[in-house]
Design brief:
By secondary structure, the protein is mainly α. The chain contains twelve helices and two strands, in the order αααααααααβαβαα. A two-stranded antiparallel ribbon has the order 1-2. Helix 5 packs antiparallel against helix 6. The radius of gyration is 18 Å and the shape is globular.
Length: about 210
């Protein structure tokens, strides 16, 4: 993922219109991923002053807490945001990620499953469930959810660099490509199963 490029796009949008609430969750995540602590702190607290206790402000503050490794407090903020507005998938994914980083698999999977119920067509929640099962070495369930994620995230080939070799490993239509994060997790699964050739193919494809 090109976090810095995504952050640059978000900044350009906000320069034109600083009130585009729809971009703020992605902007906050990009700031968190790129380690922009000061900017994320400023944005989160500005939003908290302008929209006190709003779900969006809570989410942005949760991202800041994730960045400074206050993971349980982040979980509480994401949880409060999700309780106020349960329709937003990124609140639930935030909850899941905050729980997973604390080795709380039950809470993590529960949050990701809630995200699936909200948006069953999005490939990210089953991917995160698969990642959690990979982390806990439940390879059967990990493969089940990787395949579920794969079925939802097939996109036109020109969205990513071509890598038709992956088609040999998981029966992917060679006219389509996959999310690089999903390819990486397929590689992790293959590696854990001792299928090192397949793992190499997936890891190579994910980096292109």
């Amino acid at each position: 993922y090109e976090d810095k490029k995504a952050l640059s796009i978000c900044k350009n949008i906000l320069k034109r219109d600083s009130l585009v609430d729809e971009i703020l969750p992605l902007y906050s995540v990009c700031l968190m991923q790129t380690g922009e602590k000061a900017q994320l702190f400023s944005s989160a607290h500005t939003l908290a002053e302008e929209q006190p206790d709003s779900p969006l402000a809570l989410f942005c503050l949760g991202c800041y807490c994730m960045l400074i490794k206050r993971h349980e407090h982040a979980w509480k903020l994401f949880h409060k945001a999700a309780q106020q507005d349960p329709s937003q998938i990124y609140f639930w994914i935030g909850m899941g990620n905050a729980a997973a980083i604390q080795d709380d698999s039950d809470r993590a999977v529960g949050a990701y499953r809630a995200a699936i119920r909200i948006c069953s067509s999005n490939h990210i929640p089953p991917l995160y469930i698969a990642m959690e099962y990979l982390r806990t070495n439940n390879l059967g369930l990990a493969q089940h959810f990787l395949e579920a994620s794969k079925s939802l995230c097939l996109v036109p080939k020109d969205c990513f660099q071509s890598s038709s070799s992956i088609c040999n490993s998981m029966e992917v239509n060679e006219d389509l490509e996959l999310d690089p994060l999903l390819l990486n997790e397929m590689g992790v699964l293959s590696f854990k199963k001792g299928e090192f050739g397949a793992a190499s193919i997936f890891f190579e494809a994910s980096s292109k």
